[in-house]
Amino acid sequence: MTPGIRPLIAGNWKMNASAREAVDLAQAVRAGATGLAAELLVCPPFPYVAGVCGLMAGSGVAVGGQDCHTAVKGAHTGDVAAAMLKDLGAAYVILGHSERRADHGETDALVRAKAAAAIAAGLVPIVCVGETLAQREAGQAEAVVAAQLSGSLPEGFEAAGGVVAYEPVWAIGTGKVPTEADIAALHAAMRAQLGAKTRLLYGGSMKPSNAQAILALANVDGGLIGGAALVAADFLAIAKAAG
Questions:
Q1: In the beta sheet, which residues pair with residue 199?
Q2: Alpha-carbon torsion 169, 174, 178, 180, what sign?
Q3: Where do the domains of the chain lie, and which CATH numbers do they carry?
Q4: Between β-strands 163-166 and 39-43, what pairing exists: parallel, antiparallel or unpaired?
Q5: Which active-site residues does the annotation give?
Q6: What is the DSSP letter of 125?
Q7: Longest dimension (CA), the chain
Q8: pLDDT category, 18, cuts 50, 70, 90?
Q9: Rounded CA gap, 223 and 204, in Å?
Q10: Is the predicted pLDDT of residue 230 greater than 90, yes or no?
Q11: Is the pTM of this model over 0.90?
């Protein structure tokens, strides 16, 4: 953890859950979100954002989106504007996730524009960065992440409370996790490049069994949780591990 920064445990539900399952999961998270040192955030699929925002009202659990467009409005079929998420009650938005970068060809420049749009709409952007297995094995992990940060973060990012999530692509949903030394080294490099107040999250197969050790590392200010976020008990256990 970084002294003076409140940890953030963010759940990325990705493209999962039915409407009923989303309600049940949100209610279970709300019921367990008491007495925690960490801030909790859930990011459901867009169709469920409004409902989950309603369920979390007054609970202290924040809600976010999983993507937004660069434009305020317009002829962009199937896209969602940051202002729309804000209007529903969302406070955050995940941007530049490796699945978006891979599946939709998102570039650093596009992620930067989306982050700027999110900030303009009053949302806090969570910008994701991370290397592939080939890049790590070639010793390029820190250089790749440094380049992604330089290209993906707009001016005013730290002042807006922007969050960075380091997710090694090869660890997402695979059960594989970098060594604690590798995580610490990468987060130290990001801290040196970014401001002292930027929250740095780790993502990539974090679960109750390894959360405490990872969250105890210097410059790890929380987690961006995928699979474990779909099980309320696991998600809350990770949050408790944050102190």
A1: 163
A2: positive
A3: 1-6+16-63 (no CATH), 66-169 (3.20.20.70)
A4: unpaired
A5: 97, 167
A6: E
A7: 48
A8: very high
A9: 9
A10: yes
A11: yes
